Amino acid sequence: MNRTNEPPGPRRSANVVGAGIAGLAAALALRRTGWCVTVHERAAALAPLGAGLVLWPNAVHALDALGVGAAVREQAAMLDGSTLRRPDGRWLARNDDPGLAARHGAPLLGIERSSLQAILAAAVGPDVVRFGSEVRDSEALTTGHDMVVAADGIRSRVRAAGWRGHAQPAYAGYTVWRAVVAAEAVTPAVSETWGHRERFGMVPVGSGRVYLFATATVGAQQHAEDPAGELNDLRSRFGRWHDPIPALLDALEPDAVMRHDVHALPRVPRQLHRGTTVLIGDAAHAMEPNLGQGACLALEDAVVLAHVLGDDVPVDHALARYSKARRERVAAVSRLSAQIGRLTQDGGPVRASIRDTAVRLIPARLTKRGMDRTSGWKPPSRPSPER
Ligand SMILES: Cc1cc2nc3c(=O)[nH]c(=O)nc-3n(C[C@H](O)[C@H](O)[C@H](O)COP(=O)(O)OP(=O)(O)OC[C@H]3O[C@@H](n4cnc5c(N)ncnc54)[C@H](O)[C@@H]3O)c2cc1C
Fold it and tell me: In this structure, is residue 54 part of a structural domain?
């Protein structure tokens, strides 16, 4: 029985597709408000991806609202802000900002992706995630349930079925390598170095480990034949950049390096819901990773979703409120992230040098204000009832 038009009861039920950060966060948020949740995950287990995540204050507020903020803070590294350099080490911007946490009421954190996923999965509880459960027909999931939450990532099958004609993810024109390595103290910040169509980044993620990422503008699918080839490519591109980049690359084992071509949705769907099906996380707003906000926004999505469903309205009405509350924000962050992609990955060396001069001239307070706008989100004020 589909109870869409009934007022909310204590045990409404949802099928969530995907156990990534979005799906786990949504499952947790819904369970905390009394929903009965099943998460369908096609993988056989949560795969520990060797990468890190930057969690901006907006994400930490969302994690607090989900009841796991303390566990995340315990495992993460506390960061002071962000810095920007040139490959020769000269500074372009130092936005280290000890006041950031006080201003936002929440810190900026670096964490291993697998740690965040494990914390969310433990909080969701046992027997909620069905592994090896690939959803082929999301329509079938609506039968007997009040809601389907599509958290099935950038290539969402639910989006493809329900949002026919919506633009497919497109190659952003650059590739990204990621790795986590044990390393001596590295500046407690999101440290990026911008070259010409190449970038290198370092983020401490706790327990003496550092998350590394690097980008290069290349044609799609020009990957090396094996991990050793990828590491050689990384070393030849970045091995002569400023310290400590060469030492960090020297410390890497080939198997620690992951490479993906960056894809993003050209635009966010106009509506993030259809009836009682709702898109969250990358299924809704897969964006270029240049602001480190994709997972942060997925956590926000989960909190807002549970919030709107807490009101005494039918599910489809609540999801219309979710769409309205989320669409503009996620579309704006997606656009900004794509702009940074163009600024850093397109154009020739002359344009890169003009860009560097412009970045150096931007007053720190303006950069700070821009960052505050993106990461200044707070959860809706009415607290979600505890489970
Ligand atoms: C290089 C890079 C760096 C990034 N850095 C950051 C950062 O620092 N901070 C940040 O906030 N964000 C960052 N992001 C973005 C972030 O990784 C994503 O936004 C986030 O992981 C999306 O989570 P998700 O759960 O929506 O999707 P996914 O992680 O893709 O999860 C989708 C899940 O659904 C499952 N699934 C798919 N189809 C089906 C199906 N049919 N049936 C069942 N299961 C299915 C998949 O197996 C998967 O487990 C980065 C992204 C990249 C590429």
Answer: yes
Looking at ligand 1, which residue's alpha carbon is closest to its atom 30?
153
CATH of the domain at 299: 3.50.50.60
More reliable by pLDDT, 291 or 367: 291
Please tell me the distance from the alpha carbon of residue 268 to that of residue 272, in angstroms, as a whole number. 8
CB 301, CB 26: distance < 8 Å: yes
Question: How far does residue 154's CA lie from ligand 1's centre (Å)?
Answer: 7
95-110 tens-digit pLDDT: 878 788 999 999 999 9
Q: How many angstroms is it from 354 CA to the middle of ligand 1?
A: 34
- Cβ–ligand 1 distance for 151 under 6 Å, the answer yes
Regarding the beta carbon of 18 and ligand 1, being less than 6 Å apart is answered: yes
pLDDT tens digit sequence for 171-210: 999 999 999 999 987 899 999 999 999 999 999 999 999 9
Per-residue pLDDT, averaged over 89-99, amounts to 88
Report the distance separating Cα 84 and Cα 93, nearest Å: 5
Distance spanning both ends of the chain, measured CA to CA: 24
Q: Is the CB of 338 under 6 A from ligand 1?
A: no
- Angle at the Cα of 189 (from 283 to 378), degrees rounded to 5? 50
Q: Please check whether residues 138 and 62 belong to one and the same domain.
A: yes
The minimum-distance atom of ligand 1 relative to the CA of 296 is 11
pLDDT in the model for residue 298 = 98
Contact indicator for 337, 288 with CB cutoff of 8 Å: yes
- Domain closes at, from 247, 263, 279: 263
CA of 176 to the centre of ligand 1 (A): 15
The length of the chain is: 387
CATH number at residue 257: 3.30.9.30
Do both 119 and 248 map to the same domain? no
Residues 148 and 4 sit within 8 Å (Cβ to Cβ): no
* DSSP H helix total and E strand total for the chain: 14, 16
Question: 242: domain range?
Answer: 171-263
Query: Would you say 65 and 33 are in contact if contact means Cβ atoms under 8 Å apart?
Result: no
Q: Confirm or reject: Cβ of 53 under 6 Å from ligand 1.
A: yes
| 153 CA distance to ligand 1 middle (Å) | 5
Opening angle at CA 134, ends 133 and 140, nearest 5: 95
